[in-house]
Structure formats: structure tokens, C-alpha cells
Inverse folding.
């Protein structure tokens, strides 16, 4: 009789034990998957303060950014003829403002302490970062776009219209970049720094793509006269050189083979300006 009671009790308890075991297994599985998804944030900035030389080395970057910013006719004349008295006056003004804001720690990279130490952290972007990175994107995009458009036109009709393109197109393109910032689209100039990990990488991909290509374009422009070609074939050679350089450096950046082109997304920390 006792054996019958024990067997009856075990048969009644086994569904409850089975249910309890399945609940524990499901909980353990959920906790493991949660731990896999929510990776601990990797800290990449271990310093609490930026060293003085680090802050000083960032000032020439912003001096250059704002020196080449004004557009027509200063930017065009600077690139095509070199600096003159107007450029030196503008540079003196930029030096004064950059020195003032740099000493106050109100330029990216010139802060006493790193502002962004982790990727994927919601924090408001600072006004001076928005202004500086918007200006930097204008410097990156607008001259390159105008130069490329000028090469395309010259490769069709053999005429070099870059001066007219600067006069008519610089400010509309610059305004488009500013509007992108207003609509919260410009990388590194958005209102929140949550996506800094990817935005910072794409910013440097753009720099690596445009700056060497512009230098190569300048070399092709300067040394093209020694190639003994008519204007139309020469323009086509320059266009091909520009496109090949653009493709090469962009693909290297896209493949994360260039410095600071490694893309990190939320949950991963980042060092940087």
C-alpha cells in the first residue's frame, strides 16, 4: 500500500518538477543570450586629462579648417594662385580666434578632458563640436565636389570652368552641408554622440579619400602641361586620375585599412576627438 502511495505521489509531482526544470532552463538560456547581446563596453580612453602637447597639436587642424572655409573668392584664389594679402589678414583673424577658443578648451581635441570616452553613450553634442565639424565637412565636400564637376565638364568640352563653379556653386553646396547639420544628418555634428563610433570612422574615411586625391589632382594640374596633350585629352586624363585615386582611398577606408577608419557601433568604446 505504501509503495502505491509513493508511486502515486511521484507521478503527481513529476509534471511540476518538469515544468520547474523547463522554466529554469529557459531562464538560463535567456540570461546567456542577454549576456551575449549586452557586451560590456570597452574603454579606450584611460586618461582623465588631455596632455598639453595633445591640445596644442590640434590647433593647426582647426586653423586650416577655418582658413580655407570662406569660399568665393578667397578659397578659389588660395587653391589656384596661392595666398595673398587678403589670405594673410584672414589667417591672422583665425589665429586669434582659434587661440582664444583653444585656450578655453572649446575646440575638439583642445579640451582639458576627453569629452567622448565611450561609443554608444547618449550624451548631448557640444555646440563648438557641431560648428567645427560642420565647417570641416564643408572643407571636405565642397572643394572636392566642385573640382570633380570641373573635371567632368572639361573632359566633355575641354573648358576649365572651376572659377565659375566656385562663384556659383560654393555657397549652395556649403548651405546644403549646414542644412544637413540642422536636420541632424551630419556625422560628428549631430545633437547626440551615440553614433560617434561609426561617425568618427566615416569622417576619417572622407578625409583619407579627399585630401590625398586633391593633392594628386593638384599634381596632375601642375604637371599636366609637361604631358604635351591637347586640353580635351588632358582633362580626361586628369579625370581618370581623380576617379582612380578616389576609388582607391575610399575602398581602403571602407575596408578599415587606414588609420582611424575602424567602425565601432554602440556598446564599444572609443578614443578620439
Amino acid at each position: 500500500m505504501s509503495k502505491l502511495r509513493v508511486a502515486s505521489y511521484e507521478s503527481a509531482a513529476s509534471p511540476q518538477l518538469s515544468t520547474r526544470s523547463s522554466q529554469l532552463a529557459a531562464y538560463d538560456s535567456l540570461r546567456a543570450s542577454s549576456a551575449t547581446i549586452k557586451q560590456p563596453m570597452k574603454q579606450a580612453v584611460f586618461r582623465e586629462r588631455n596632455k598639453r602637447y595633445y591640445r596644442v597639436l590640434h590647433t593647426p587642424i582647426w586653423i586650416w579648417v577655418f582658413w580655407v572655409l570662406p569660399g568665393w573668392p578667397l578659397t578659389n584664389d588660395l587653391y589656384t594662385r596661392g595666398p595673398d594679402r587678403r589670405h594673410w589678414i584672414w589667417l591672422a583673424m583665425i589665429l586669434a580666434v582659434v587661440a582664444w577658443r583653444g585656450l578655453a578648451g572649446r575646440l575638439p581635441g583642445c579640451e582639458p578632458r576627453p569629452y567622448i570616452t565611450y561609443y554608444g553613450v547618449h550624451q548631448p553634442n557640444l555646440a563648438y563640436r557641431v560648428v567645427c565639424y560642420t565647417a570641416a565637412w564643408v572643407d571636405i565636400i565642397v572643394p572636392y565636389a566642385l573640382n570633380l564637376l570641373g573635371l567632368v565638364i572639361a573632359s566633355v568640352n575641354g573648358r576649365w570652368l572651376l572659377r565659375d563653379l566656385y562663384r556659383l556653386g560654393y555657397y549652395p553646396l556649403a548651405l546644403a552641408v549646414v542644412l544637413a547639420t540642422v536636420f541632424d544628418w551630419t556625422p560628428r555634428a549631430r545633437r547626440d554622440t551615440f553614433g560617434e563610433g561609426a561617425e568618427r570612422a566615416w569622417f576619417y574615411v572622407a578625409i583619407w579619400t579627399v585630401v590625398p586625391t586633391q593633392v594628386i589632382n593638384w599634381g596632375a594640374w601642375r604637371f599636366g602641361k609637361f604631358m604635351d596633350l591637347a586640353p580635351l585629352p588632358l582633362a580626361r586624363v586628369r579625370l581618370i586620375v581623380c576617379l582612380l585615386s578616389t576609388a582607391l582611398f575610399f575602398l581602403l577606408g571602407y575596408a578599415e585599412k587606414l588609420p582611424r577608419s575602424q567602425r565601432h557601433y554602440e556598446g564599444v568604446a572609443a578614443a578620439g576627438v
In short: The chain has one domain: 52-254. Residues 52-254 form one domain. DSSP finds eight helices and no strands in the chain.
